[in-house]
Amino acid sequence: MKSSLAVLAALVLANATCAPAQPAPAADIALSLRKLNETGTVLMIAAHPDDERTNVLTYFARGRYMRTGYLSLTRGEGGQNLIGSEQGAALGMIRTQELLAARRIDGAEQFFSRAIDFGFTKTAAETMEKWGHDRVLSDVVWVIRRYRPDVIILGFSGTPADGHGQHQASAILGKEAFEAAADPAKFPEQLKFVQPWKTKKIVYAGGFGGGGGRGPAAAGAPGAGGRAGRGGRGGNAPAPNTPNANPLADGSFPPPPGPPIAPANPVATAGFSPFLGYTFDQLASISRSQHRSQGFGNIGQGPGRGPAGGPPGANTPPPPPPPPDLFTDIDHSWSRVPGGSQVGTLLSQAVREYDVEHPEKLLPLLGQVRPLIAAINDPLAKVKLAEADELIAKCAGMWAEAQIRQAEVVPGAKVPVALSIYPRLNVPVTVQSVQPEGVWTAAPLTTFQPRSEGGVTGTLELTVPANQPYSYPYWLEKPTSGERYVVENQMLAGLPESPVEQVRIKLTVAGTPIEIVRNIENHSSDRAEVERIRPLTVVPPVSVNMPGPSVIFPSAASHQISVRVHANIAGAEGTVRLEAPAGWKALPASQTFKTGALGEERELGFDITPPAAESTAKVRAVASVGGREVSVGMFTLDYPHISVEVLFPPSELRVVRADIKVTSKNIGYIMGAGDEVPEAIRNLGVQVTMLSEADLVKGNLSQYDAIVAGVRAYNVRPDLRANHARLMEYVNNGGTFVVQYQSAGAGSENIGPYKITIPNGNGFRVTVEDSPVAFPHVDSRLLQYPNRITSKDFEGWVQERALLFPTEWDPKYETVLSAADPGEKPMEGGTLWTHYGKGVYVFTNYVWFRQLPAGVPGAYRIFANLLSAK
Q1: Which residues contact 713 (CB under 8 A, 6 or more apart)?
Q2: Sign, CA torsion 406/412/416/421
Q3: Kind plus residue range of the DSSP H or E element containing 371
């Protein structure tokens, strides 16, 4: 039995790479039986992707078989990206999918509010101001009322000890929502869809992190495994209500704001699941490794590995007793549900009688259970009814899929869906109907063929409505309102992603009528990768892609931009026009295009002439094709650890006219974790060459007027660290080397000719984007040449000023800029420079990787001075 049950472990891991997971091995049925017989529900609330205590989620979902959810208030849009150059909404989409990949492993569910991660902040007050306290509180209340948890676990204390202001806000809002969700006077508009819900217990999870700790941790103790994350702390177990704020005069701690929180106990997350072949900590480590955009990939502990430190010896102390159960005083059996006692009795019998080699023997018992659940008028019973139907299908060995040849379709298209619905065990099955969910129409099922063993195969032809909107992520359909998404459909609020197109299958299995739902999907693979699964996605007939988010015009000279038209249908033809505001000219006014095969692209060049005076505007591209106007591009996120996602950014280009001079004309760029700075500085009319490992080892570096190290390049490029001495030789011989923001850790110890100490902690940054900036050395050459820098150049910045100011530096460096968040001491180490031999070295942790792509003119002027330093 053990070998067959262990199959699920491999299946769970395959799921993380988007491989199919429909086959139901014996372990999956065993787990599904126990989950169906469990009515407890747990909800964890924190601020970001990576804030969840993954092993606590795993313990409750995989070990206690409970419905377990994680509400992340944001999608992590304001963080940094270690796997690509995506920022903002695109990064939020990556982190959304990473969370979903993690949940497929640890077994929990995922929810979000409409709040946007606007970057690091030091106060809950700024967070509430930008999010809108009541609006985000309503989202948390909505999730609680809809999910109906018995226990809420807060990720943070709601005090300044949490560090990040968004961490603090998540706990403050969680505590308020705990009370508000039970009050019908709060957000009464929700009561058309849900009822007030009184959660029985709320606890605070001590410590920080959640990556595969190696055993039960004491309350608030640091956990092992995984990166500490934003706050630089570890730990993974629910802890007593200790705010960890600054102590009072008597040594005690002040209580956190909001209603009191019940004390919690550590969770024994090191337990082992014989069904999965892993401990819960091991599964949590694998789950947490899906946060790859944040550098959380780790080896973890494989199957059978015990705690670190080797086998126990003669003097090894006995393990501590198991901690008290959070559900000790909470009924989580079927007896809590009116009319549910008999359900629990029958399911307990099914658990005892389950034969792993003959799951179909459970069908008579499950046939008794299903109508009992269906007769219960309770929201939990509706969830359990869907679980029961899926379990019956698994016990019959049902295969049910709805496949399409092409993932992307256009409005008005006919879409053939190949259906296969049949049992793989000797079980009588009759298919009554197959219908698409929602407003789509389908042709009659005339092409279905019955199978001798039961079930059917055939084709269902769908018609995409001519006015069908494109498949936007629902939270990106409308412009944001401040730091909050606008979602008008209440039933979408909280969902991790937009609902995908599905078919509902009504069938009878061994005499029991059930309903199951399957996604309409495209399956593809090649010899170089595993099978990838993509949902049906509605796209425009063509996409109109601009060259980037912004273009700088450093003089009044015209600049040619290329608009790329991508055909999503064969034989697409039409026109593209540029809409320019007053004072800007675009020639020609429009151009025709014609494509042949599906997927062909055409590049159309337009000359844009700016006004003589400084100006900022937007240029919009519009394609006319087949009577439809299209003003969106298409951007595909395709990473192997998450599902493929498509975004539809508006076909707009921010154009900025600003007087900017730069003397360096040939730039070498060492890309780090990923940024869009190279394309941005090309706007200055300079040539940019991306430097490879071979270039660093043996290339002719002297040909470059300046070399720039990208964001975290020293952290992620071993070849850069190995060739640091060669770059210092380049500077010594007269070159200019500009090093952007690097984080503490690997590679940060030796980034310049002299010592620079990068701190590990969030306090050494300026998070308010309009904080005043001073000039410690007003006559510094970097402030005077070739552009004279003034305070005006720090206007219009986005998200933040700078990250991780050095705490120490060699006196040979000269400081250039000084900044601080309100009420804090100014920090000067954000931009350091020195002559080294005949050349110049510059270190700068100001966030050019955000400002330059955003088209901030002052940031361009300053960066041009850094490139021109001699």
Answers
A1: 670, 671, 672, 673, 720, 739, 740, 742
A2: positive
A3: helix 363-374
